[in-house]
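Workshop exercise sheet. Pairs work together: one partner reads the sequence aloud, the other fills in the structure field after running the prediction. Swap roles for the next sheet.
Pair: D.N. / O.F.
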Amino acid sequence: MSLKKIALMVGTSASTVSRVLNNTSPTCASKELQNKIWKAAREINYHPNENARSLKKPAKASKIFPHISIVLARISSLEEDPFFLELFRDLEVELLKQKASIDNVIYADESFNQNIINSSGVLILGRCSYKLLDKISAQNHNVVGIWRNPMNFNVDEVVCDGKKAAEMAMKYLFSLGHQRIAYIGDCSFERRYVGYCDTLIRNDIPIDYELIKQTKGDADMAFSELLDKKLAGDTDFSAVFCANDNTAIRVLEMLKAKKRKLKQPISVISIDNIEASENTQPYLTTIHIPHREMAHMAVALLLDRIAKEHKEVVRIEFPCKIIERDSCYRLL
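Structure field:
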């Protein structure tokens, strides 16, 4: 019944809804339709109908399935950050596979005052403060954090180290002959920025703070100013390291608009490998963060803790890897 209800809500077939929710055919629907299906599923708190399934199986003792709260600690909406949107979608798929339902999706900061006492467990997406974590842990002891960088909190965490990803990106640019490398992204408490600086220092390349542009969201103004200085001859750089793909996509668009004014192409590299990075012009070279595997392991770890199968704090770190495409060029 729920599949049919979702199908009616979004205007598609129940079979398409089933394929999307069970991730059996990633190309069975457009990205827009997939988003609508998942939104509708959240609205009606969809989870597989175990009562209906049990009619086809031998009778057995009823089972209580876990219900999970998801806390989004770094963003105010999923549409704000494509990486966290894709990670959130992967979590929905994994929770559905495990017959777990989502209690709440909470956008939280240090003023957090939501009731999560009755949730079986909590997944936190994105870096959070000690104060926020204390408020969450005071209500629920089954907590797993998923973030790009190790936080050393007293909770289970699944990470892919942003500093290592940044070092990988910088070393790749060095291998192509680049030394004048700009940085566009967050600089405050950000390991990707630390990785950028450390790699320059270890290679005896002075840090030029004119090439560093702090931005937490809209990169247009930050990079536009830097590009105008380059075109005016007031500064020079041959490559740009962006802290995330979303920023890099905007940088590529601005470079394309000024292509005729540039004497040689500027290389662009970033971190995340979101789906949109495969559709840029040129295709974006990026560092892959394995969000699907991170989501799978985070759910497994949370369910294991809920079942009291482990008590010690666990950290699982996934390696990153470079995805070489067309946006980086050898310096002539």
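Discussion prompt: Residues 50-62 have pLDDT under 50 and may be disordered. What would you look at next?
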